[in-house]
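TASK: fixed-backbone design
INPUT:
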């Protein structure tokens, strides 16, 4: 099968179209003929050598796909060859075929083109699992950075669906307008004094839940912005891994700081999250209450260009590789 292979860690030029053996599903796995693969920031980190796959996972980059069931493991039920599906992966998505534990394969979201669906499940699973974990509720204030990116462009409308006031940041006027079009109540440039802008917008009220992809760089301002009983959930470290945490401030606010990753969770946990996404998110997509993120499509052979595009930070929504 054709797949994207790496000549070694490095810049996007290390990604090349090559040939790998077509995998065969084990008893509890499904082989998917891939239609599209979502590109995620974790893919860039893996390419750079900073985010290796979990033990036993494919070395091929790619954390989500859409496609059709091609072969079914001996102990898998409920699926028929040819069924349309999407899958959450630990690796292997940038390829014509991928094997996935059956619990991480779910029906494609109804009414969503299969190409677009290739960029939905990873953001949906990430946003749902983390906002459920910190119990974001109606009437609360929610902050997410990079509102025009994949996570942000899904988190904004989902948080609005939950009844939250949504604040976000982005890097250009066009992206800020895009965030507002998704439902953001306040959108500020991260190139300016965004913590002051948040405080002014809230008139001294704190933020109840922060979904943080930056990590160390924003740790202090995030703790400063937390409301009483506020929750900060770290899902990325684009701003570094080590920061200063003022425990006195956190104690006074009875605040929470937690962190979570999706890729390395046990299969059973990821399967439960996938089931929850089908139950909680797919109906919202089906009735149009929330929309999939905007997307830009590259052929599989142009994975290098897709990574360049993401690193340039000029896109909105998701970048998708068209495989089939």
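OUTPUT:
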């Amino acid at each position: 099968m054709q797949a994207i292979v790496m000549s070694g860690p490095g810049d996007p030029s290390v990604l090349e179209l090559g040939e790998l053996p077509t995998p065969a599903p084990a008893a509890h796995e499904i082989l998917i003929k891939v239609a599209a693969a979502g590109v995620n920031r974790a893919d860039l980190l893996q390419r750079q050598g900073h985010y290796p796959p979990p033990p036993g996972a494919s070395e091929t980059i790619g954390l989500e796909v859409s496609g059709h069931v091609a072969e079914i493991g001996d102990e898998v039920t409920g699926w028929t060859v040819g069924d349309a599906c999407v899958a959450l992966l630990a690796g292997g998505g940038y390829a014509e075929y991928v094997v996935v534990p059956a619990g991480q394969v779910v029906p494609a979201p109804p009414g969503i083109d299969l190409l677009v669906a290739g960029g939905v499940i990873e953001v949906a699973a990430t946003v749902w699992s983390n906002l459920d974990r910190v119990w974001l509720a109606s009437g609360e204030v929610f902050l997410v950075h990079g509102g025009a990116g994949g996570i942000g462009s899904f988190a904004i409308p989902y948080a609005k669906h939950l009844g939250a006031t949504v604040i976000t940041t982005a890097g250009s006027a066009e992206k800020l307008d895009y965030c507002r079009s998704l439902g953001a109540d306040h959108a500020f440039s991260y190139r300016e004094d965004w913590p002051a802008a948040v405080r002014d917008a809230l008139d001294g009220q704190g933020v109840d839940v922060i979904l943080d992809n930056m990590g160390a760089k924003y740790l202090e301002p995030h703790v400063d912005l937390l409301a009483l009983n506020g929750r900060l959930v770290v899902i990325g470290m684009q701003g570094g891994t080590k920061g200063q945490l003022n425990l006195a401030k956190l104690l006074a606010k009875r605040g929470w700081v937690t962190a979570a990753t999706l890729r390395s969770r046990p299969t059973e946990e990821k399967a439960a999250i996938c089931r929850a996404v089908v139950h909680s998110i797919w109906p919202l997509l089906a009735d149009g209450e929330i929309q999939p993120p905007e997307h830009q499509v590259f052929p599989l052979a142009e994975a290098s260009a897709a990574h360049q595009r993401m690193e340039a930070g000029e896109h909105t929504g998701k970048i998708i590789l068209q495989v089939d």
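COMMENT: The radius of gyration is 19 Å.
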